[in-house]
Amino acid sequence: MKKVLKMLLPALIAIPLLASCGSKKEQEEPGATVVTMYLRNFEEWSNNYMNSRVSEFNSNMTDGIQLRVKFFEDEAYTDAYKVAKEQGQAPDIFMCSYGNIFNDLVETGDAVQLEGLIKQEYLDDIKDNVKDMMTYRGHLWSYPQLTEPSTLFYYSKSALARANVTVPEDGKLTWDWLYDACAKVKPTLKRAQYCVGIPIGSAAGWATYGMQYNLTNGLAISEDWKQCLVTADSGYKDLCEFWQKLYINGYVPQGAVSPKGSYNDIIEALTMNKLAMTFGGSWSIAEIMHTYPEKASDIGVAVIPTKSGDTSKVTASNGGWTYAISSQSDTAHREAAAKVIEWFFAESAERTAGYFQAAYYSKAAATKSVANYISEHVTPSMKEWVDVIDGVASKAIPEAIYPWSIACAVTNMLETVALNPEAPIINAINACYSSISEIINSPDFPKKPE
Amino acid sequence: MEYTFDEYQVVNKKRHNRFKYRGSKTAYLMLLPAFVLLSVFVILPLVLAVVRSFQDYNTGAWVGFKNYNYLFTLDKLYLKSFLNALIMTAIISALLLIFSFLFACVLRAMNNKFGKVVKVLIYVPFFISGIIASVIFNLIFNYGGGLITSICVLLDKDPISFTSTTPLAYIAIIAPTLWLGFGYNTLVMYAGLINIPEDYYNAANVDGANSFQKMIYITIPNMKNYTVLLVINMVTAYMQMMEIPMMMTGGAPLDTTLTPVLYLFNSFRDPSRPDNVTIAGAIILMLLIMAVNIVVFKTLRTKRSEDA
Question: What pTM was computed for the model?
Answer without folding.
Answer: 0.81
